[in-house]
Write the structure tokens for this entry.
Amino acid sequence: MRRVNKLLFAGGIVNSFGGVLVAFAPTGCWYGYCWNQEAYNVPLGIGIACLGLVMLVASLRKGQRDYGEMYICSRCETALPFAEVPDEQCPHCHIPMEPLKGFYTRHPELKKD
Ligand SMILES: [Zn+2]
């Protein structure tokens, strides 16, 4: 998941810059790579830049949530991955769940052994 986000992020940046480049510099050479897109540089450039921005936004939004992160209910102590509790509510007790990481440090009284 994180690897995909990084690829999406890198692709987004490349597409954003590439799109702007095509829109404002329809012909040119850069490090041996030459292009000539005068006929349709503006729509193409804007399209590529938009695609890049969409990729950037998607990578950042997904990056905010790790869907494999475990959440635990402080009442019944059911632990579930975030993907199964998108609203962070325990399916049994309907109370907000907490991230499993550090849970027993915050609630030492629930520690069994
Ligand atoms: Zn519960």
About this structure: The pocket of zinc ion is lined by residues 73, 75-76, 78, 90, 92-93 (CB under 6 Å).
